[in-house]
Design goal:
Strand content of chain B: under 5%
Helix content of chain A: over 70%
Number of domains of chain A: 1
Oligomer: heterodimer
Largest sheet of chain B: none
Number of strands of chain A: 0
Largest interface: A-B, 33 and 35 residues
Number of helices of chain A: 5
Structural class of chain A: mainly alpha
Number of strands of chain B: 0
Shape of chain B: elongated
């Protein structure tokens, strides 16, 4: 989304950018939310299925304990998941709805300006959350990949 | 952490990122950007479609390259017991990677899926995309314009079909890849 849609938006008129963002955001937030929930649930089941014997046979002989690199990495991964859940929940239930313009008849010029500024702030916040989400996702993939070899440190 | 384990972790990270980019990009293109594109006027939608497809194709080729390079590097590692059986001389595979075992069979199917994705990518990049972006000359007749439009519509339909097929294949590859940890899903 960041690499593809942002690039395409540069050549589009602002009014159409708003329409595309609104429609893309509406679908993306549900894909994001469902994906994060599926990752969380499947991750939980995988942790519950872990047994010490199987872990010990892996490279680095990891242990499911906070005193071991494997347990610490798993804790960090859980924290990253919580941040992602917070990001997509904020997008789905707060930032995306906040981007909708609320115009009423007989609005004064100041009210119109304030409304535009409010929507602008919501769009900026959405951009920041999207970037944070991307960075945390990449970190989470790195943490997950390191579990194959017993954790990150 | 041991340096070899760091390298293994890096290969796994790049492999996962490559695959996540491919499958996530395909889902976003098909189910997020596609419907959003339909909400703006056709002329602008065409420009948007060209721009997003241009960028997406870079992502596709980058991901497919990263996936195969990191897959070979991971299989070629020598420090993890049981997965150092890749060889660049005939018969190429030994131990767990031989075709008598489920692991080797699953890996072969994964490699074939990767080949199909590359072939589809080549068709889209070098056959269908040029048809879609081709411009008409100044002296084109009305019949020529109509034929060119038909050709563009057919090219767009084929791109959509191939993209959907790629998405299904990528999902199958995800399941097969995940099954490798347990010895592979295919066992003939």
């Amino acid at each position: 989304m960041e690499w593809v849609l942002r690039y395409a938006q540069r050549t589009m008129p602002p009014s159409q950018v708003a329409v595309v963002c609104k429609n893309a955001g509406r679908r993306y937030r549900w894909f994001g939310l469902v994906s994060v929930l599926v990752i969380g649930l499947s991750g939980l089941f995988m942790v519950l299925r872990l047994d010490d014997g199987e872990l010990a046979a892996r490279a680095g002989s990891p242990e499911l304990s906070l005193g071991d690199s494997y347990g610490q990495t798993l804790l960090l991964l859980t924290a990253a998941w919580a941040v992602l859940l917070a990001c997509v929940s904020a997008m789905a239930f707060w930032l995306h709805p906040a981007q909708a313009k609320r115009s009423r008849p007989h609005m004064t010029e100041e009210e119109v300006k304030a409304e535009r500024a409010r929507v602008g702030v919501a769009i900026k916040r959405m951009e920041h959350v999207l970037r944070l989400e991307l960075v945390v996702t990449i970190v989470a993939v790195a943490l997950g990949a390191s579990l194959h070899v017993g954790g990150l440190w | 952490m041991d340096q070899d384990l760091w390298v293994a972790s890096l290969y796994a990270f790049l492999h996962d990122i490559g695959f996540a980019t491919y499958i996530g990009g395909a889902i976003a293109m098909e189910y997020v950007l596609g419907p959003a594109q339909a909400s703006i006027p056709p002329a602008q939608a065409q420009v948007m479609g060209q721009k997003t497809a241009d960028r997406f194709l870079w992502l596709v080729w980058g991901s497919l390259g990263l996936i195969i390079v990191t897959a070979v590097l991971r299989l070629n590692q020598t420090f993890l017991p049981g997965i150092s059986e890749l060889d660049f001389n005939s018969p190429f595979t030994h131990g767990r990677l031989t075709l008598e075992l489920g692991y080797g069979q699953t890996l072969l199917v994964l490699f074939l899926i990767w080949c199909v994705l590359v072939i589809n990518g080549l068709i889209i990049t070098f056959v269908l995309r040029p048809r879609l972006t081709g411009r008409l000359g100044t002296g084109t007749t009305a019949a020529g314009v109509s034929a060119a439009q038909n050709q563009k519509l057919k090219a767009a339909e084929w791109i959509q079909r191939l993209t959907r097929a790629d998405l299904v294949l990528a999902l199958i590859a995800a399941v097969l890849g995940a099954s490798l940890k347990y010895g592979g899903l295919i066992d003939l």
